């Protein structure tokens, strides 16, 4: 808290001396004659205050220290003097109750002190309301004190000059350097280390960021909030209103599905009437319907009944409430007219006139996602009465993206007669049976198959007990569900939005079947940990929501229409046709030709409702699931059920920084299931690959699994701002994004059975670290649990407790890794004779991921070694060479050698390669020493098969070969900034040998160390011989992702501790030294790159702090991106409290917005590059798969892929990306001239700063972008 105190110097010194054990005080003395000259008032006094986060940490440490000292005998907890209390009154905000009394006390005790409160906006305000001060950095004793400071001095001079120039440009008086005084007290080591890290962090703070800190310090909180798009009160009302409408929409939709349209309409009319009454009384309210989808849902329900008058009444309500109708609204009216035997044509004419008047087209109605076949027929009936020659228009499939003109405007070189498929693998597959099986899985929403961990027969006694327990629990849950539902109905007021309709969708047994899967997962979980209670509730609510969506689609005819046309789509996906006409275009053609329109609209439930539904069922489980079945004896339990033990309990654990509510299973049940391994594994169908090609993404809500809802974006439930943007843009704008995902979806896969059998044989024996197969808890190398016996001494008991704690943690980690591998191998074993496909979706940045979580090609080395392309292609003249080079790339042995040297090395060790292929577990095990052992073994087998074939050029290879980028984030940065030196370091420039940026930085750091050693710096001498690639590689990598100095020290410290010869006493100082040197060398190596990164941070910081909104932008392919980082808010509904971290109607998290924007923007670029490459590969008939910046294809197509990859990278960076981003920011966040007229002088200066920063695109270097086309090692 910042204060200005008018008093004599002597009095101030007396106060400070009195409180030196209580506060750290930072102040500057100013003579009264000079006080009037200050233009920035009292804020100028403390313009040099450092990080606000440091304040909070320091104050927390001091407070804990004081608290502990008050508990010591003989120490008083009262303040040492009255003066101390008076100063605390100055620095502590008061509550509303005692505000007047406190002010009187201040005036009475210190009549000559004037207090004005300001807040440093450059850093977040701490949650702790107490006053917090920061000490001078000069008083700190840093291990870096011995490092020469010439560079820092030069940096400070440049900073002051830049501050002066920008201040002159903005007509701001630059604050003079301030002196400081520090009163200290002992602190903990961790706090001291963090303080040092913050000092080091400040040295690497960008110049503009420092200027921003200074300039924002001249504004108080109120003035900055005036520049935000919305005030805090407005955000609060908007948040409540948005949540209310989300809840109301789901409530209306589910109630109508349950057949309660009349009740819904009465409730809705009452809400509208109440809102009208409040308007008349001029009272503010947020409980009124404003979401047009609520009106549309009710109108479609009335349209199904043919009640035109009800539809017209709703339309009038929309107009009176100033809610603009959408195309769906007009479609509902036309559907209602078509449902009538006779209607007035003038009504239809007026509707069509309104459609065109509001900027819509009648033909666009047939492209809506919410209409089924019957509704389309009714609308067509109405239009044909007005226009007898009217025909259903084809669905447009063009894409309006400059970067993709060559893909969509030029004809494909592939024809029906092109011989691009090596084998017709699909000829002997019965896709009709596979389609039926996939649909059965999705209707049942679960798949059950045998676990590979069952190696011996389970005791029948345990099996019978398990069945008996499950039957008893199911009966208990049904009774509990019906009882609690009836209680809820009695206690709920008639006009309240409750979850009762959501509990009446299915019968009780269907609900309990879903719940039993959750119970089964808990029984096979851990005794020491569970997911947080809110997460468990959310997951259960999502399961019920998914079941509801599936039932809705079955009811509206979606399933029947899908079965009638999907066979034709499958035939398109497995033949050459998919390279001539993409999947989205073909699907739209099939739907139009067969007149099979399907309602696949997304019916969302709010985050609050999903958690409430899950909470309801968990409360039923906690209350009614009793252990009445004896699990340890043959006798029937005769205990009264009310007195029986509950199976589930609520516990509160602290797994990390915060305590959280968790669920614990009764120990008897856990012990019983520990002796009863899972004979069968049960998965949601969305956790497994598809047996047929996935449904193509035709818009942002239709695609993926055939019947089950698949999210297009991986976002938290409440982070819906980006989803709203996607709904508002046309398919033509993001068609390229959709088509690129469809190209990845259409790649068929199969299991590498030899690798699978080898891994399973090791897994069943308890795993083996040598082969990177996770150990099981039954492995002999796992130490037994330590027992704490009675009679042990206190020291021995504590020692065993510590050891036991470590073993518990170790065993939990081992069990987690083993379980993940069990799922992966069991799924692979289930699909060993199948051809399958992976559906894909996006994260918020546009990066693509396969939807199945346990088994996919983005997984571990084992997962990647298990899969092959289902379609084989002849190796051709260059395929075998590419296989050999790929093999050596996997081993990571020759990363600094040329391509030809890698091939030569493969030929030299061919005997080891063949030995690995023939005797994987009994030979010389050369493959097991590789960086990626299982992929290496699979490649050895493929090379052996190719060499031993009669003609290797005709050998059909199903093996995917990778082309990986060199530190791809830095490649994009170097290309954006045309950074010549940086481009050479990441292989953008042609060279005879590959560059390794990690080794380059290591060499630079070593040179810096040698210079310091000559200056007799002790730490440089200690680190001699220890600066290696492994030590600082992680720090170099994570620098691109915004790693802080503190994080870099931790990374380097972990590596140094793993070096046996390094003196552990110097780890802290050495990690600090190396972190600073690494940062300096990276800035020197990537100068233009750092300018861009700094500009990104400056823009993001201003947008989030001053504009008070999240950073958002559009990718070059038109995908809108919003960073979902917000401050947490509490949602209280029905007596339950939920924490929401992603609500768009809350303030952004400034730190996350700033630090995450640079890597997020670059990731949106690398996803764009991948999508452009995927589309061009599909156009040229090449199989393409990606793992972010690793591109996969057949060995024979590697050269073509390499050419396309480079061409698309150059095409992407030929675009003015930074200028486009600047313009995008200007349109969304820049201040307009009208806003300047309403601002005062200080606000105007800040507005100018924001506009100037956004427009200031960094200058570029001299790198020639076209040279990427000739770079052998750009992707290799």
UniProtKB/TrEMBL annotation:
Catalysed reaction equations from the record: RNA(n) + a ribonucleoside 5'-triphosphate = RNA(n+1) + diphosphate
GO cellular component, as recorded: mitochondrial DNA-directed RNA polymerase complex
Gene3D superfamilies in alphabetical order: 1.10.287.280, 5' to 3' exonuclease, C-terminal subdomain (1.10.150.20), DNA-directed RNA polymerase, N-terminal domain (1.10.1320.10), Tetratricopeptide repeat domain (1.25.40.10)
Biological process per Gene Ontology, one example term: mitochondrial transcription
PPR repeat spans: 291-325
GO molecular function, one term: DNA-directed RNA polymerase activity
Extent of Low complexity compositional bias: 70-85
Domain DNA-directed RNA polymerase N-terminal: 436-746
Keywords: DNA-directed RNA polymerase, Nucleotidyltransferase, Transcription, Transferase, Transit peptide
InterPro entries in alphabetical order: DNA-dir_Rpol_C_phage-type, DNA-dir_Rpol_phage-type, DNA/RNA_pol_sf, PPR_rpt, RNA_POL_N_sf, RPOL_N, TPR-like_helical_dom_sf
Polar residues bias spans: 86-100, 179-189
Main EC class the enzyme belongs to: transferase
Listed EC numbers: 2.7.7.6
Region Disordered, residue ranges: 58-106, 171-195
Family: Belongs to the phage and mitochondrial RNA polymerase family.
PANTHER family noted in UniProt: DNA-DIRECTED RNA POLYMERASE, MITOCHONDRIAL (PTHR10102)
Protein name per Swiss-Prot or TrEMBL: DNA-directed RNA polymerase
Organism lineage: Eukaryota, Metazoa, Spiralia, Gnathifera, Rotifera
């Amino acid at each position: 808290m910042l204060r200005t105190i008018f008093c004599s110097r002597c009095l101030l010194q007396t106060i400070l001396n009195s409180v030196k054990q209580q506060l750290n005080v930072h102040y500057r003395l100013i003579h009264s004659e000079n006080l009037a000259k200050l233009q920035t008032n009292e804020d100028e006094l403390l313009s040099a205050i450092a990080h606000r986060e440091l304040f909070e940490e320091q104050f927390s440490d001091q407070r804990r220290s004081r608290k502990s000292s008050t508990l010591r005998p003989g120490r008083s907890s009262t303040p040492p003097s009255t003066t101390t209390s008076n100063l605390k009154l100055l620095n502590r905000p008061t509550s509303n109750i005692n505000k007047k009394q406190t002010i009187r006390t201040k005036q009475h005790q210190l009549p000559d002190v004037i207090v004005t409160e300001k807040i440093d906006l450059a850093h977040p305000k701490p949650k702790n309301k107490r006053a917090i001060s920061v000490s001078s950095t000069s008083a700190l004793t840093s291990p870096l004190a011995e490092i020469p400071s010439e560079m820092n001095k030069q940096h400070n001079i440049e900073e002051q000059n830049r501050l002066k120039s920008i201040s002159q440009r903005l007509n701001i008086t630059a604050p003079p350097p301030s002196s400081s005084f520090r009163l200290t007290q002992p602190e903990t080591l961790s706090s001291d280390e963090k303080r040092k890290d913050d000092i080091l962090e400040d040295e690497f703070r960008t110049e503009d960021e420092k200027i921003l800190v200074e300039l924002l310090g001249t504004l108080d909180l109120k003035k900055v909030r005036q520049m935000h798009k919305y005030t805090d009160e407005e955000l609060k009302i908007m948040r409540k209103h948005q949540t209310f409408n989300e809840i109301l929409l789901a409530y209306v939709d589910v109630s109508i599905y349950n057949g309660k349209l009349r009740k819904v309409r009465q409730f809705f009319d009452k809400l509208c009437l109440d809102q009208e009454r409040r308007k008349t009384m001029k009272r503010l309210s947020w409980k009124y319907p404003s979401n047009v989808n609520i009106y549309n849902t009710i109108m479609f329900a009335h349209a199904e009944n043919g009640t035109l008058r009800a539809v017209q009444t709703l339309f009038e309500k929309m107009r009176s409430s100033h809610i603009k109708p959408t195309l769906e609204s007009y479609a509902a009216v036309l559907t209602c007219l078509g449902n009538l035997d006779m209607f007035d044509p003038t009504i239809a004419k007026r509707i069509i006139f309104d459609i065109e008047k509001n900027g819509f087209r009648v033909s666009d109605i047939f492209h809506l996602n919410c209409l089924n076949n019957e509704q389309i027929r009714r609308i067509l009936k109405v239009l044909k009465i007005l226009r007898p020659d009217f025909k259903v228009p084809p669905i447009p499939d063009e894409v309006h993206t400059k970067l993709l003109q060559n893909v969509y405007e030029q004809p494909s070189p592939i024809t029906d007669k092109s011989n691009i498929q090596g084998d017709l693998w699909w000829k002997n597959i019965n896709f009709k049976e596979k389609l039926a099986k996939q649909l059965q899985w999705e209707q049942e929403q679960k798949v059950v198959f045998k676990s590979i961990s069952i190696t011996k027969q389970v005791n029948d006694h345990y099996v019978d007990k398990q069945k008996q327990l499950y039957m008893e629990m199911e009966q208990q849950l049904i009774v509990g569900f019906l009882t609690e539902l009836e209680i809820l109905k009695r206690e709920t007021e008639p006009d309240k939005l409750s979850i009762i309709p959501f509990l009446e969708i299915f019968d009780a047994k269907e609900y309990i079947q879903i719940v039993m899967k959750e119970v089964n997962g808990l029984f096979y979980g851990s005794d020491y940990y569970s997911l947080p209670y809110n997460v468990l509730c959310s997951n259960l609510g999502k399961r019920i929501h998914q079941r509801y969506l599936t039932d809705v689609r079955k009811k509206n005819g979606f399933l029947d229409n899908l079965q009638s046309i999907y066979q034709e789509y499958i035939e398109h996906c497995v033949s050459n046709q998919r390279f001539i006409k993409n999947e989205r275009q073909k699907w739209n053609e099939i739907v139009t030709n067969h007149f099979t329109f399907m309602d696949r609209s997304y019916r969302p439930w709010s985050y609050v409702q999903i958690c409430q539904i899950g909470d309801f069922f968990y409360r039923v489980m906690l209350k009614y699931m009793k252990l009445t079945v004896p699990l340890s004896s043959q006798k029937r339990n005769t205990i009264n059920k009310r007195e029986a033990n509950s199976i589930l309990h609520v516990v509160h654990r602290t797994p990390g920084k915060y305590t959280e509510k968790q669920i614990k299973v009764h120990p008897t049940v856990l012990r019983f299931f520990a002796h009863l391994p899972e004979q069968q594994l049960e998965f949601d169908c969305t956790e497994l690959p598809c047996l047929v090609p996935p449904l193509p993404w035709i818009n942002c809500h239709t695609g993926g699994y055939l019947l089950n809802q698949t999210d297009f974006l991986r976002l938290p439930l409440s982070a819906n701002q980006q989803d709203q943007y996607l709904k508002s843009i046309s398919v033509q704008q993001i068609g390229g994004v959709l088509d690129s995902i469809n190209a990845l979806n259409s790649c068929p896969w199969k299991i590498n059975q030899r690798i699978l059998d080898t891994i399973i044989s090791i897994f069943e024996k308890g795993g083996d670290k040598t082969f990177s197969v996770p150990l099981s808890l039954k492995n002999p190398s796992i130490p037994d649990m330590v027992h704490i016996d009675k009679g042990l001494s206190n020291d021995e008991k504590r020692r065993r407790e510590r050891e036991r704690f470590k073993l518990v943690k170790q065993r939990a980690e081992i069990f987690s890794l083993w379980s993940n591998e069990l799922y992966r191998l069991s799924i692979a074993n289930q699909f060993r004779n199948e051809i399958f496909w992976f559906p894909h979706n996006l994260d918020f940045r546009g990066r693509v991921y396969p939807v199945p979580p346990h088994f996919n090609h983005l997984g571990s080395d084992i997962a990647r070694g298990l899969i092959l392309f289902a379609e084989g292609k002849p190796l051709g003249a260059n395929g075998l060479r590419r296989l050999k080079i790929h093999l050596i790339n996997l081993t990571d042995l020759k990363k600094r050698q040329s391509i030809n040297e890698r091939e030569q090395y493969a030929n030299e060790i061919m005997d080891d390669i063949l030995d690995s292929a023939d005797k994987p577990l009994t030979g010389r095990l050369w493959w097991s020493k590789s960086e990626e052992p299982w992929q290496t073994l699979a490649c050895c087998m493929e090379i052996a098969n190719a060499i031993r074939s009669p003609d290797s050029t005709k050998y059909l290879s199903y093996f995917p070969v990778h082309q990986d980028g060199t530190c791809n984030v830095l490649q994009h940065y170097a290309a954006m900034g045309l950074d010549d030196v940086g481009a050479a370091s990441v292989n953008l420039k042609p060279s005879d040998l590959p560059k390794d940026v990690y080794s380059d930085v290591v060499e630079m750091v070593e040179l810096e160390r040698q210079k310091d050693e000559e200056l007799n710096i002790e730490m440089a001498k200690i680190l001699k011989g220890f600066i290696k690639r492994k030590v600082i590689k992680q720090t170099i990598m994570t620098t691109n992702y915004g790693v802080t100095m503190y994080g870099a020290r931790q990374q380097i410290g972990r590596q140094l501790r793993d070096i046996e010869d390094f003196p552990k006493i110097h780890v802290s100082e050495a990690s600090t030294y190396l972190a600073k040197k690494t940062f300096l060398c990276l800035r020197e190596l990537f100068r233009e790159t750092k300018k861009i990164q700094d500009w990104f941070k400056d823009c993001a910081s201003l947008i989030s702090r001053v504009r008070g909104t999240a950073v958002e932008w559009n990718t070059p392919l038109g995908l809108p991106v919003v960073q979902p980082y917000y401050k947490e808010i509490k949602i209280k509904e029905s007596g339950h409290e939920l924490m929401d971290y992603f609500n768009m109607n809350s303030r952004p998290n400034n730190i996350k917005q700033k630090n995450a924007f640079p890597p997020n923007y670059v990731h949106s670029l690398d996803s764009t590059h991948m999508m452009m490459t995927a589309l061009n590969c599909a156009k040229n008939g090449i199989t393409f798969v990606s793992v972010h910046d690793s591109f996969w294809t057949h060995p024979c197509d590697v050269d073509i892929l390499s050419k396309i990859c480079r061409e698309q990278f150059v095409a992407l960076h030929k675009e003015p990306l930074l200028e486009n981003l600047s313009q995008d920011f200007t349109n969304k966040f820049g201040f307009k001239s009208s806003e300047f007229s309403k601002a005062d002088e200080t606000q105007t200066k800040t507005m100018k700063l924001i506009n100037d920063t956004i427009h200031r695109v960094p200058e570029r270097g001299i790198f020639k972008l076209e040279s990427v086309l000739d770079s052998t090692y750009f992707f290799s």
